[in-house]
Amino acid sequence: MNKNSPSSVDENTPDVWKSLFPFPQADSHKYSRGTALIMGGAFMTGAARLAARAAQRVGAGLVMLASPAAALPIYAEALESIIVRPCDTAQEWQTLVDNEHQPALLIGPGLGLGSAQNADVLVALAAKRPTVVDADGLTNFADMPEILFQALHVECVLTPHEGEFTRLFGEIEGDKPSRAFIAAQRAGCVVLLKGAETVIASPDGNVHVNHNAPSWLATAGAGDVLAGMILGLVAQKMPVFQAAAASAWIHGRVASLHGPGLIAEDIVEGIPAVLREILDLQNSRFKLDGKNNGLGI
Question: For the whole model, what pTM was predicted?
Fold first, then answer.
């Protein structure tokens, strides 16, 4: 394999991950469906709230959110079925990360910038559990990317848009699949490079290209929902590469079904309908493709 070229580039459709998509069984309970933990910020509270709701909607059995004490009433009032815990110090964050249920982790949406936030990202990564790093979790390391790369591991997913990607990886030549693959090699984990054409790349050379994202997704908070969806799936033990690919496809499918007027909250609310389509597909009732028209019998 050419070190600058992925070994395979495939269209991201349900066919490439549907068999691994987690649905509850008759004996499932909230802990067997996976635990997810999100670090919430003090000011941009909507980002973590959207991510938490999305993690629930894709099936995580228990979602927890760490909140600065001053913002805890905001989170707790809005998130009735999500456990909100106060977290103002690195030690309190470490205690939550070390929860007995071994949660999958998401850090970045609305996190804020600074040395304390850098330390929180590194605490999450040191746990060596499935971890999604998004938004401020990436931007915090723009001036010291090697520190982040050294802490990352194969169970991580980075979810940059083009600006975050360039700040973290610099200018990389080539087409989008090649650029994402080179970044995944450098980071040693899955990289989901967002855009109208979203590319999901793993360091072992597998790349999926997602083409079903309509223009309605250009709305504030859509990326937070996507990060939460990935978190919810990896919490249920879906492999990180397939979880990222499935989330990108569901994200686009929901937006296509909704159409004009879409806001981030609509994406969260639209997830169950698409999950029903995927369940039907697992049961071989329908065929779904990667394009905007999606569903066919």
Answer: 0.94
